[in-house]
Amino acid sequence: MHRRRRTALVLAAAIAAAAPLLTACGNDAHPGAAAVVGGQRITVAQLESRVDEVRQAQRAAVPDDTQYQQVVSSTSSLTRDTLHNMVLDQVLHRAARDQGVTVTRKEIQRMRTDLERQAGGSKGLETAWLQKYGIAPGHLDDNLRLQLEAQKLAAKLGTDTSQPAFWQALSKASGELHVDLNPRYGSWDVQKSSRVDAKTPWVREVTTAGDELTA
């Protein structure tokens, strides 16, 4: 596989899962917010909407009730993972901006066309991103921008997305943005640029779509 495409997949896999470390922090200074990044709120309603988009796409792709429930069960941490993606998107964008990195619409379209060719078409790519990374079709281009920013940032730093220098740049951006997560979703590890799961009795990983956003 071409190195650029391989890098995109590696980063997407890294973004899709946060490290489950045994610590938690945060405060209730921002009621109604799932997270605050750079002084801007990611509201619980925005997070719920993003998760609903994924669940609706999964439901459309898997009409059988039993199979759909299996999909929901296998992605029971979707809410927390989605928030992690939303925060990391902003952190990476800040790190890229700090290095003068920009991504054009043309570059995103070129990447999408390339990936669609590999996946057998637009629908194949949307399905692959939904199944592997929990990205709803409506946010596919946003995620591809994220991939391109990561690639170009790594190139600017003379490294790649798997190396410490890349993640150190994200850690620096995390510190600048003062990421603050609502404790129900864990906290943010500035050094690792990842969500730290909160092990609290009132937050449970659920196995049904109806419960997921009320845990």
Automatic annotation (TrEMBL):
Keywords: Signal. It comes from the Bacteria. Pfam families: SurA_N_3 (PF13624). Residues 1-24 form the signal peptide. Gene3D superfamilies: Porin chaperone SurA, peptide-binding domain. This is SurA N-terminal domain-containing protein.
